Amino acid sequence: MAGMAAYPLTVGFDLDMTLIDSRPGIKAAYEELSARTGTHVDAEAAVTRLGPPLEEEIRRWFPAERVAEISALYRALYPEYAIASTPALPGAHEAIAAVRAAGGRAIVVTAKYEPNAKLHLAHLGLEPDAVIGSLWAEAKAEALRDHDARVYVGDHTGDVRGAHTAEALSVAVATGPCDAAELRAAGADVLLGDLTEFPSWLARYVAEGADGTEPSAAATA
Description:
Layout: E1 10-13, H1 23-37, H2 43-46, H3 54-58, H4 67-82, H5 92-101, E2 105-109, H6 114-124, E3 130-132, H7 140-146, E4 151-154, H8 157-165, E5 169-173, H9 180-185, E6 190-192, H10 198-209, H11 217-220
Parallel strand pairs: 1-2, 1-4, 2-3, 4-5, 5-6
InterPro entries: HAD-like_hydrolase_sf (IPR050155), HAD-like_sf (IPR036412), HAD_sf (IPR023214), PGP-like_dom2 (IPR023198)
Keywords: Hydrolase
Protein name: Hydrolase
């Protein structure tokens, strides 16, 4: 690992359905939004589509001229209704710890409104080195490049696209709305069942790429 000081490792993580199971909290927030507005929102269906920006879901239920207003209301309701009921996914704490143990930095890059993302992380005791919100799919590459992230971990095909746009390795976890076949078809470089598999994969990746070169095929299989 002599090369780590010269080639610091930064790993980016998505938030919803990668580090946290946000479905219970988001469902509760949508149910409250529906009650406040008098407009039916199928919260059960909404939580099967997590990943894209909030506005995409709001457009399904409200007219275009109200999307900004309703999105702002949802974000205001979110801290009270979504934070406490949202657990960390298995392996989330250990994944961040593994990056630190490798001498690296862990960042969160998410489409979620950044203040609410930070509330989730603080509530669960997850402590990344940076949190960047309101970025989706290819737009995530902006933050990944800014932080020199070599790896991006996510659960959605949009996360695969974001990683590749940033010329980072796409590590996909099959814990969200996209199954393993979809993630593989989207071009994920590494496919894991969940984050509990991440520390051992990272150890192989660092061992193969510690001199600053690209990891071997064995490390990315």
